[in-house]
Amino acid sequence: MRIRRFALLAVLLWGGLGGVAAQKAPTRAPDVRYEPSSPEVVRQMLGLAGVRKTDVLYDLGCGDGRIVIAAAKQFGTRGIGIDIDPERIKESTANARAAGVHRLVKFRNEDLFEADIRKATVVTLYLWPWVNLKLRPKLLKELKPGTRVVSHSHDMGDWTPERVIEVEGHKIYLWTIPGRGNIGDSDHGK
User: Fold this and answer.
1) Which domain holds residue 54?
2) Is residue 22 included in any domain, yes or no?
3) Is 97 inside any structural domain?
4) Which end of the chain is more exposed for a tag (fewer CB within 10 A), N or C?
């Protein structure tokens, strides 16, 4: 009897520790603090990008998942949200389940600078200017020509946006990844 209790205690402790170990901590501090976009800004970002059901939307720094979830609800778009903060990933996953779109979307606890984003046809951002600039070479290198990139509030330095709109006092920028022969153009500098 004593051995069985010990075995049970060991299993419970091991399972408990495994559960704690499974909860990831950020690999490093987040680059930006979490600040959600308003529903109207989200709506306008998706509209500016021309999001369709056939798209695969990646939201880099997804926060609570609202952009990915809105695209799935409004258009049936598949989406991936990436955030370095595991709490945001838990929140996003719960929000997707509550919205009934959990089969269309996934959330990954990853560093946006290291994440595989090659399948994206639309990328959304609400980051700080220096993060956008650091991310720009990755976008130009890894995304297919024609992929649309939309940023809330911040531009990409000397990469001229195709369109800029203002919503609720915030600018929203749109770029399209150029053909491979055009990446070296000064307009799309590194």
Assistant:
1) 39-188
2) no
3) yes
4) N
CATH number of the domain residue 119 falls in = 3.40.50.150
At 87-143, the pLDDT tens digits run 999 999 999 999 999 999 999 999 999 999 999 999 999 999 999 999 999 999 999
- How far is it, in rounded angstroms, from Cα 71 to Cα 76? 7
Distance set, CA 49 to CA 23, 27, 55, 182 (Å): 34, 31, 10, 21
Residue 24: inside a domain:
no
The strand pairing partners of 173, in sequence order, are 151, 164
The number of domains in the chain is: 1
Q: What is the pLDDT of residue 13?
A: 35
pTM more than 0.90 = no
**27: helix, strand or coil:** coil
Sheet of 148-152: strands edge to edge? Answer: 105-109, 78-83, 56-60, 122-125, 148-152, 170-176, 163-167
Which residues are bridge partners to 164 per DSSP? 173
Measured distance CA(143)–CA(79) in Å, rounded? 15
Whether 121 is covered by a domain: the verdict is yes
Query: Are residues 144 and 121 in contact, defined by beta-carbon separation less than 8 angstroms?
Result: yes
DSSP letter, residue 48: H
Residue identified by tokens 């997804």 is: 62
pLDDT in tens, 18-71: 333 334 555 677 677 788 899 999 999 999 999 999 999 999 999 999 999 999
- Tell the residue number behind the tokens 């926060």, with chain if given: 63
